[in-house]
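Why does residue order matter? Because the sequence determines the fold. Keep that principle in mind as you read this record.
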Amino acid sequence: MSAHRPYRVTVVCTGNICRSPMGELLLRERFAEAGLAEEVVVDSAGTHSWEVGNPADPRTLAVLARNGHEDHGGADHVARRFERAWLDEVDLVLAADAGHLRELTRLARSEEQRAKIRMFRSFDPMAAEQGDLDMDDPWYGDDTAFDQTYAEVTAAAAGVVEHVRRELASRRD
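Structure:
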C-alpha cells in the first residue's frame, strides 16, 4: 500500500440499493467526522447485476434522513456489480451477509485478496460476541426493517473507522 494512495473501502450486498449504499453513506459520514475523509474512499457494489443502474432504494435514503444524516452522495447513487479486478485495488471489502462473503471469497485469487474481505458486522463487538454477523436484508420489509438494518450498520461503523485508522497508521510507519 502506498502512503499516498487513499485507503479504499467497498461495502457489498446483493443488489447495491439497500444495505451497501446505507453502509457506504454512513461510513463516508463517519470518516469525515473522524477527519479521515481525505484519506479514505468509500463506495459500494452488489454481488448480482439485477439492480445495476438503479438508484438507492428510497427507503434507504429515508431511514438516513429520519436519523438526521446529510446526503453523502445517496441522491446520486447508481447501483453496480462488484468486479473481481477490484480486489487488486480495494483495501477492505465489507460483506453484508454470509452469502456475499462466500461470493466475494470465491472471486478472490489469492490469500492476500481473501484477507481484505470481512463481514461488515464483524466490527460490531456485540454482534461478533453473539456470532450474528449477517446484516438483515430490509428489501421485503417496511420501515421497521430498514430501521433494523440502520441499527446494524451504525453499531459496526465505529469499529470500521477504528480498523481503518490503525491501517492508515501502519502505512505511515
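The beta strands are 7-13, 40-46, 92-95, 117-119.
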